[in-house]
Amino acid sequence: MHCPFCRHPDSRVIDSRTSDDGLSIRRRRQCPECGRRFSTTETASLTVIKRSGVVEPFSREKVMSGVRKACQGRPVTEADLAILAQRVEESVRSAGIAQFEANEIGLAILPHLRELDEVAYLRFASVYQAFESLSDFDSAIAELRAHPRTGSMPSIDEPASIQNPQE
Ligand SMILES: [Zn+2]
């Protein structure tokens, strides 16, 4: 790993720490040339196979732009979308698989979007679960009514605005 300060081609690891969720390792490094210190974060690479067959790295930004359309006109902020994308990444990483199909990412988005906004959830679900008729919407809505949101999401520091987006 090059030193980001002097471009020296080598660096020494002086400390390694696994993140709380166990999904990444943070290394503290020191450059033997200029002596400056810097950190690197190591995560397993996560790739997505698109319907076209193209493989690309997982991108939170892509998750956000996919969901943003479903959230048009809804009380959902960019910060909400960023948190949602982070949760989606955490849930796909915790599955322990390194490569996903784009459709699986869509399915991983659903439970998190449901927590955020039920109308956006229905819009998004109608695309990803390929709703074909009104009865598909009916059963999705019945499901929403039968299992109201619990608010018991994994503990991530989040702005107060996400707590009750409907109120
Ligand atoms: Zn250096």
TrEMBL record:
Binds 1 zinc ion. Keywords: ATP-binding, DNA-binding, Metal-binding, Nucleotide-binding, Repressor, Transcription, Transcription regulation, Zinc, Zinc-finger. Residues 46-136 form the ATP-cone domain. A zinc finger (unnamed) spans 3-34. Pfam families: ATP-cone, Zn_ribbon_NrdR. The keyword Acetylation does not apply. Belongs to the NrdR family. HAMAP family: NrdR. Negatively regulates transcription of bacterial ribonucleotide reductase nrd genes and operons by binding to NrdR-boxes. This is Transcriptional repressor NrdR. It comes from Leucobacter iarius. The lineage of its organism: Bacteria, Bacillati, Actinomycetota, Actinomycetes, Micrococcales. The gene is nrdR.
